[in-house]
Amino acid sequence: MSYSKKYLPLFIGVAMGAGVFLGSKLDFSNPSAKLFSYNAKKEKLNRLIDYIDYEYVDNINTDSIVDVTVNRILENLDPHSVYIPPEELAGITESMQGDFIGIGVSYYPYRDTISVINTIKGGPSERSGIKAGDRILMADNDTLYGDRLREEGLANKLKGELNSQVQLKVYRKGTGVFDVVVKRGKVPLRSVDASYMLSDSLGLGYIKVNRFAETTYTEFKEALDILQREGAKKLIIDLRDNGGGFIAPALKMADEFLKDDVLMMFTKNKKGAIDENYATGKGSFEKGEIYVLINENSASASEIFAGAIQDNDRGTIVGRRSYGKGLVQREMALGDGSAIRLTISRYYTPTGRSIQKSYSNGNKEYFNEYLKRYENGELQNADSIQVADSLKFKTPGGKIVYGGGGIVPDIFISKDTTRVGETLNYMLRSGRMGGYIFEELDKKRAFYNELTEEQFKTEIEIDDDFADGFLLYVKNAGVDIDLQDYREQLKKYLKAIMAQQLFGTDAFEKIINQDDSMIQKVMSIEK
């Protein structure tokens, strides 16, 4: 509800009080009786809110004021203490749990229908016979096609209770419209994007982790066990663009590579209480070379993992300086479906360094720090990385490492200065490439669905006409990009996305990684 600017100072003051009052209601994991005991100041604020609700001359939406104020309070603490409104919390929780209840398809709204990109292997839809290219027209009595198709509400119509049934009306080219009943089940949200042998002759395996969710360690261990059975004696752990998540799975992953009783990291709160985390004797890969790939977007739990490996002289960190997040948050419910993530401690790598970058100049400058790295040249040249001698630490093996702003790699690999990779990644994230590939696959769906991954790899070639078709496709959509000088990179991306739609993320990464500079560096060391 809008309100007069002349009342704004009053409202802000009241809202600040409401924010403090709400803080008294936080649902801590370890509640303290003292924290929730009677307090005259909290009672005063409670009464003030009641007075405004009942007596103030104008109608005020105190809920919206409280939401805004909670955000303002938290952003003045540190960049990573945040408010999560009810409409966002469910999605975030689902992502970090690592699964949801649904029918198990990847899809996107194509023209006026839900089009199946692929089915989750072993999932409910695959078991029911749904195939890539199918159009889902109805779910029970809900119509899922037409001019008013909106992506926001589609997922909820396909989700439901575990083992509940949904009757789908499906259209398939060459078959027509048919009905199929799907029993909903747990659908994984994979955090391990890919795992495969990069080189059998080198005994070199590869695992890419995109975030640290509740299921990440289980996924990682399954991938590691398979690679070891396939002969992996050396390993690349790819944490590029991994913004973190839960600490526990990162520590469990590190434990696989570290000997018993080795310190992996410790945290310290404002009272000085220290909580140390040590490796156990359960590690299955305590010998053999390890390479950890990081970049400027590797943060939080990714940095904990990389720091544990680097500080214990266990492996080699390859890439560019990581983000620099050394704060630990705890999620706390506010009682109305919303929550906050509040910073409760700092974490330190085994040598005792904090890798948290400064936020003393405010959140805006903190989040724009990447631009400074770009401007000062550190993304292209290791000598431009700014480190402080006062934050110098030494590992047990004598290696010099630095705190104060991310993990500095042992081997530096510069960022692509042409920025073509950024352009292609933008096209990928925007869905432009995925839409074009889906349309092209749809023209010969029966043919592509019969291909094995090996046949696709050896027999399918992306030619100039196919690449030109994509450039015309995005131009007609109002996006004019010049990739004429980077045609080969464009072809690689188009083939990778085609492989992903047909065979999954493993197939995508295998193609994208073929001439990757960090991976090529590791392979040159091992040869």
UniProtKB/TrEMBL annotation:
SMART domains, alphabetized: PDZ, TSPc
Domain PDZ: 89-144
Family that this chain belongs to: Belongs to the peptidase S41A family.
Cited PROSITE patterns: PDZ
Pfam families in UniProt: PDZ_2, Peptidase_S41
Keywords from the named record: Hydrolase, Protease, Serine protease
Protein known as: S41 family peptidase
Domain of life: Bacteria
Entry keyword ATP-binding: no
Keyword flag Iron: no
